[in-house]
Amino acid sequence: MEKITLPKGTKDIGDPEIFIWYHVENIVRKEAAHFHYIELRTPLFEQTELFARGVGEETDIVQKEMYTFLDKGGRSVTLRPEGTAPVMRSYLEQSFHIHNPRMKYFYMGPMFRYERPQAGRMRQFHQFGFEAIGFQSPAADAEIILLADRIYKKIGLKNIRLEINSLGCKKCKPQYLEALKNFLRNQAAQFCRNCSNRIETNPLRVLDCKNASCQNILHSESFPIIQNFLCDDCLTHQNHVIGILESAQIHPVINPYLVRGLDYYIKTTFEMKTEELGAQNAIGGGGRYDNLSDALGVKGIPGVGFAAGMERIILLLQKQSESKAFFQKPFIYLSPLDQQGEDVLLRLSIVLDENSIPFHLDFSDKSLKYHFKNAQRMDASFIIIAGENEYQTKTYTLKNMLSGEQKVVSQTTLIGDLLEAYQNVKNT
Ligand code: AMP
User: Where is the Aminoacyl-transfer RNA synthetases class-II family profile domain (predicted)?
Assistant: First the structure.
């Protein structure tokens, strides 16, 4: 029979990599709690219309990358490709804009995009994201960026570049789009087919094109820089955001090409990048999306947020840190020699659990040599051996894996000794 394998672009995440995921997830949850962003868990699939209207019909995500299918009731549903539109859908559906309009959310979980898989680009990948809805102030943009920066730093990531741009607002964006279209029209024949099709319908998307020759044309001297078109309001907004960041020792670089692949952004956009992951260099990004609620049928709800890619963060962390530092190891390896040993150690495991001492209980159908090797592989600090003899004498054989010292201890003194040793290990 043919072997069943993982679907392309997906991955099993287990021992030992899962411990790095726990490390990242724990920091995200902790920072969310400190900044009081509350978790929202939205469904993994939504009505297709949400992303078509929210993310934008002209985007790569909607045109090429969505996992869309008809359910058995004939409704078109889509596996979520991103987290912001579902959060806004939930906010509006629950009428927060009427009774409690200022909300701070975070989310964490899998997203789905039908992309060409490669290192750091998956079809099922994971994001965590933060959204501040109902806030107009540029300080909200700065808080989101500051929060992202703090999370990356606490995770232990180094050498991350923050790029920032403004996409203008309803007032000034149209003039910029006109100038951009003129620039693009002049070179229309040289762009790839996809880009030439988008010049009239959605020229900003041309800036996202990954094709090197399109990028070359864009990086010419006559390219219109959006900063020259921003209205006073947008310019003040941008300067205010950058000013707050600078005073927090975060130094963004303005990148006029940074438009991001989703249609809903206005004013601030930003991205965190690394030089160490090759082509998949963005490890997170976001911006202000005051137009998103309009696309979903409720006018004028401001919002700002960011999303970060877990897989890329973990790849980077593996490059920059000693992965072993994140592993959770059993402090004690419990090795039964026979059925009575199993009985003794199973009961001991409950006491260890009550004292919050992590352990690994193996079972008796292997040799002692195997158990020693296994305990070594798991980097356990102690091994406890028990069999018929220990069952009769109410003792355990305890061996310190580091020093090799082995002794027989009574049930009454064991837990006290272990707790002390565990505290010492935790404190070092
Ligand atoms: P986006 O929603 O496209 O702005 O993505 C936000 C972050 O998610 C990016 O900066 C990446 O770190 C990550 N990301 C996006 N698409 C993928 C993917 N296909 N595979 C892995 N990570 C991704």
Answer: 1-336
Please state the pTM of the whole predicted model: 0.93
Topology (CATH) of 17-172+230-323: BirA Bifunctional Protein; domain 2 (3.30.930)
Bridge partners of 384, per DSSP, are 334, 398
Q: Which residue has the tokens 């359910």?
A: 71
Tokens describing residue 3: 């072997």
Residues paired with 103 in a beta bridge = 133
- Counting atoms of ligand 1 from 1, which one is nearest the CA of 115? 19
Q: What are the phi and psi torsion angles at 345 (to 5°)?
A: -75, -30
* Amino acid at site 360: H
Residue 74 CA to its chain's centroid (Å): 33
- All structural domains of the chain with their residue ranges: 17-172+230-323, 329-427
Chain segment 68-108, per-residue pLDDT in tens: 999 999 999 999 999 999 999 999 999 999 999 999 999 99
For residues 251 and 145, the answer to whether their CB atoms sit within 8 Å is: no
Distance CA 110, CA 31 (A): 20
Mutational pocket test of ligand 1: of 111, 113, 165, the residue with most ligand atoms within 8 Å of the beta carbon: 111
| Residue ID of nearest Cα to ligand 1 atom 21 | 121
Per-residue burial over 257-282, b = 16 or more CB atoms within 10 Å of its CB, e = otherwise: ebbbbbbbbbbbbbbbbbeebeebbb
Atom of ligand 1 nearest to the CA of 312: 12
The CATH code of the domain at 329-427 is: 3.40.50.800
The count of residues in the chain is 428
Which helix (H) or strand (E) covers residue 423, if one does?
helix 411-427
Single out the residue of 315, 300, 302, 264 nearest to residue 285, CA to CA.
264
